[in-house]
Amino acid sequence: MLVAELLGDKSIYTIGSLTTRFRAAQVMAGITVAFAAKMAVAVILGRAISELSPAIVAAMSSITFLVTAFLLWQKRPLEAGESVHDAERWPRAASLSFGAIFLTEWADAGQISAAALTARFGHPALIWIAATAAMMTKGALAVVAGAGLRHRIPQAGLRYIALALCVAMSILSAMRIG
Hints:
This protein is mainly alpha-helical. 77% of the residues lie in helices and 0% in strands. The chain is built from 9 helices and no strands. Helix 3 runs parallel beside helix 6 (90-102). The model is unreliable at 2-7 (pLDDT under 50).
């Protein structure tokens, strides 16, 4: 499942972008809950999740990426000498991270794999744990990359990069609608 998630996945870029702006622990808190919830839905609903309309899934993803971009744009720039850690609060950062992951990319390779494995072998708790661990591994890699960029690129530049990535992901998602 991890390999399927790493190849061609937009959420890894979203997580990396969020980590350039927020503390790694805040992003990890939000994405952990989001990944666990998405995999729980996949395990509980089994094959039904794979039958979601691709257009609806793509539209939801596109809108969520645009909302994330808007929220990043509305965030006030940091003052000179102000740390990103001082400016951000846990609830906002974790909830934005949660929403950016939970509301995008439904019926992706990871969810369909978890649903199929549950339908084939049973053991929903074991599959949920394994699928969530795979997603968290991907998330942790993106958090490390984003945190590394935060120390190498000026904060103002990171804000525009994160905004551009969210808009690009929205466009890519919208292209899947038609």
